[in-house]
Amino acid sequence: MNESNPYVPPAVWVWDQPNGGTFANINRPTAGATHEKPLPRGKHPLQLYSMGTGNGRKITIMLEELLAAGEHDAEYDAWMIDIFAGDQFGSGFVELNPNSKIAAMIDYSGSQPIKLFETGAILLHLAEKFGRFIPQDSVGRAQCLSWLFWQVGSTPYLPGGLAHFYKYAPVKIEYAINRYAMEVKRQLDVLNQRLEGRTFILGEDYSIADIAIFPWYGGIFLDWGYGLAEFLNSAEYPNVERWAKAIEQRPAVQRGIRVNRTSDDVPGLIRERHSKEDLD
Q1: Distance between CA atoms of 224 and 133, rounded to whole angstroms?
Q2: pLDDT, tens digit, for every residue of 103-155?
Q3: Contact 200, 206 (CB under 8 A)
Q4: Which region, left, alpha or beta, applies to residue 81 given φ > 0 means left and ψ of -120 to 50 means alpha?
Q5: What angle in degrees, to the nearest 10, is found between the helix axes of 119-130 and 138-154?
Q6: Percent of the chain with pLDDT over 70
Q7: In sequence order, what DSSP letters do the residues of the chain get, joined into one string?
Q8: Fewest 10 Å CB contacts: which of 5, 59, 168, 213?
Q9: pTM of the model
Q10: What is the structure's pLDDT at 238?
Q11: How far apart are CA 175 and CA 134, in angstroms?
Q12: Of the candidate ranges 15-29, 49-63, 250-264, the one whose mean pLDDT is the lowest
């Protein structure tokens, strides 16, 4: 788009040409599988199908925190779903998650398999299953769920949208970048104010609210992949920076962020995790 030849939306949008950008050969305006690819299954009750992105890291961090807390039944098999290669449109993954987004999980521990998609749902399932990282009182639980849904309802389209137009789009569109940057900075300010005088989102108790928010907004301060820390002037949010760096130092978090990362993405980190020994 330019001022001399502005884009005028048609009366009815039609997908008649690739949109360009990193995901041009994968994305399309229809749902469903594009190829046959059954999902593998390992030996543990929890089977995770994901990738080490902002969304994917939420679940592996949660699982590693559960294991660190002594919950041996949280042992899991992690299977790589490479979204850059279109694995999310394989038949097995689409059957598990019709929306073709990571992460997805199957819990085989009960009499019938429990199929889960959407990271907020997975985090809540695991927290309730093990009675960990979620307050048991109604007031604390309400606060925890409010911040959990704040994350799932905003970050995929705010820092995720900014990252798309800032890094992955075929052209840099000033309006789109400015619009997303403004909203991301507003949310960072929300988070910075919340963390004033608090160690974690809920106060002194580490919870699934922290686990959900950390890979997205904490990742900005740790400069995980998008190069947005300087662009967003992260120094304006000292409480978020302190919180992010403290969570990053947790041993379980260190293990969680190593799972299902491609070797060309983060050299030296493992591709799949099938047992705890793989991370020791």
Answers
A1: 25
A2: 999 999 999 999 999 999 999 999 999 999 999 999 999 999 999 999 999 87
A3: yes
A4: beta
A5: 160
A6: 90
A7: -BTTB-----SS----S---STTTTT--SS-S-SB--PPP--SSSEEEEE-SSHHHHHHHHHHHHHHHTT-GGG-EEEEE--TTTTGGGBHHHHHH-TT--S-EEEE-SSSS-EEEESHHHHHHHHHHHHT-SS-SSHHHHHHHHHHHHHHHHHTTTTHHHHHIIIIISSS--HHHHHHHHHHHHHHHHHHHHHTTT-SBTTBSS--HHHHHHIIIIIHHHTT-SS--TTTTTGGG-HHHHHHHHHHHTSHHHHHHTTTT--TTTSTT--S-BSSGGGG-
A8: 5
A9: 0.90
A10: 96
A11: 39
A12: 15-29
CA-to-CA separations, 238 to 4, 32, 164, 234, 266, in angstroms, rounded: 43, 43, 25, 8, 27
CA 174 to chain centre: 26
pLDDT tens track for 213-249: 999 888 888 877 667 888 999 999 999 999 999 999 9
**pLDDT greater than 60 at residue 61:** yes
* pLDDT tens by residue, 195-206: 999 999 999 999
Cis link prior to 103 (omega < 30° from 0)? Answer: yes
Give the C-alpha separation, 224 to 72, whole Å: 30
Would you state the pLDDT for residue 269?
36
What confidence score (pLDDT) does residue 270 get? 40
Q: Where are the chain's structural domains? A: 46-133+257-279, 138-248
CATH number assigned to the domain covering 46-133+257-279: 3.40.30.10
